[in-house]
Write a structure and sequence with these properties.
Elements (H helix, E strand, L loop, with lengths): L7 H12 L8 E11 L5 E2 L7 E2 L7 E9 L6 E3 L4 E3 L6 E2 L4 E12 L20 H7 L11 H10 L6 H15 L1 E2 L8 H7 L1 E2 L1 H14 L4 E19 L4 E18 L3 E5 L9 H6 L8 E7 L4 H13 L3 E10 L8 H14 L2 H4 L5 E3 L1
Parallel strand pairs: 9-10, 12-15
Antiparallel strand pairs: 1-8, 1-15, 2-7, 3-6, 4-8, 5-6, 5-16, 11-12, 11-14, 12-13
């Protein structure tokens, strides 16, 4: 066969493509400082979990590295959901009227999750879901109540007549959007609490959605991360004055991850969105943009109960905690103006989420 000779126009196009610079994802500097203060007359001891540091998720959608840590971090380990963490190499005992401080600096380069073309006419059914995912991500846990009669009955009623996973998901999103009001809480709610009160913040609503999805045999879990937003600047004190959170440039957030054939795992964000149509909420999740950075997933760990237990332990102690978080170098042009307003609300609601989310049982890598 004769070789095809490149035309002058094709050669010009090749040259132009090579000359166009490839824009790399910008790197942001995220600084986290924790101050543990003992206001008691005797020494107190922290739990190892109190000082654990998330190493975030690394992949095609983001790169997160530790650029410095004072004191240095110890070896990495994983929790029961496979999240990577590390501990500062420091003692856990705080003398009377003493304090301990550590600072970790991250470099974050986000690009957003690859966005699939979600089309209702191409949606798959439950039979297209791998059996291993059903076994691992539809079970009942302390946080996700997939075998609760009320939750399961409601989920079946809402999705009646729908045969595809996407169809069921969109029905559930529509119901959540119409029936659950956004409201903040100091601690994550159990599914029945959100259902009874008809209100909840980002993780509360996601936990209820995941519970309903799991009851239908659809794999799902809660994802936790940060919203990067130059408009966020908060300082809040909660837990009876024992926990103070200062956030500038970021707010902690939660959303659902749902296995939806044929597209696989997709993010479903019920609260940090400017969309109102349920299908568009699914199609245009903010996690597809560089605004949201994933930190860890919650699937099997006792997220809700451990949060309650941690708060109770702290407020009945002489321990006072300050969390100071800042992000530098944000590009506000990436943020949808509507989302900026919502992002500030989200940040106030879940500033404590980072602290309570690090309470899982730890396993060595």
């Amino acid at each position: 066969m004769k070789a095809r000779v490149a035309t002058p126009l094709l050669i010009l196009l090749i040259i132009l493509v090579q000359l166009v610079p490839v824009q790399a994802a910008p790197q942001y500097k995220y600084t986290l400082t924790y101050v543990f203060e003992n206001r008691g007359a005797t020494s107190t001891t922290l739990l190892k979990d109190d000082i654990s540091v998330p190493l975030f998720v690394n992949g095609a959608s983001q790169t997160v590295t530790i650029t410095s840590a004072t004191p240095p971090l110890g070896p990495a380990y994983s929790d029961e959901d496979g999240n990577s963490l590390a501990d500062p190499t420091m003692g856990l005992s705080i003398p009377a009227n003493g304090n301990l401080t550590y600072t970790v600096v991250y470099g974050i380069s986000p690009s957003g999750l690859p966005k699939p073309q979600i089309d209702s006419t191409k949606a798959g059914t439950a039979s297209d879901i791998p059996a291993a995912l059903i076994s691992n991500y539809t079970v009942t846990t302390e946080t996700f109540w997939s075998n609760n009669t009320v939750v399961a009955t409601l989920a079946r009623s809402i999705t009646s007549g729908q045969t595809t996973v996407l169809g069921k998901l969109v029905r559930l999103v529509a119901w959540m959007h119409a029936n659950i009001t956004y409201a903040t809480h100091e601690l994550p709610l159990y599914p029945n609490q959100t259902l009874t009160q008809r209100e909840g913040d980002c993780d509360d609503q996601s936990i209820l959605l995941v519970s309903m999805l799991r009851s239908l045999g659809i794999p799902s879990y809660l994802e936790i991360g940060v919203v990067l937003d130059s408009g966020i600047n908060n300082n809040d004190t909660i837990w009876n004055g024992h926990l103070n959170i200062s956030e500038k440039g970021l707010g902690w957030h939660g959303w659902a991850m749902v296995y939806t054939p044929p597209w696989g795992w997709i993010p479903v964000d019920l609260t940090y969105t400017s969309e109102s149509d349920p299908l568009k909420i699914v199609q245009n999740a903010p996690e597809y943009t560089p605004v949201v950075v994933s930190a860890m997933k919650v699937s099997n760990q006792s997220y809700t109960t451990l949060s309650v237990e941690t708060r109770q332990r702290i407020i009945t102690s002489t321990l006072y905690i300050r969390s100071i978080e800042t992000v530098n170098g944000l590009q506000s042009s990436w943020i949808d103006p509507t989302m900026i307003i919502l992002g500030v609300v989200v940040a106030v609601a879940i500033g404590f989420m980072f602290y309570t989310a690090r309470r899982p049982r730890q396993q060595a890598i």
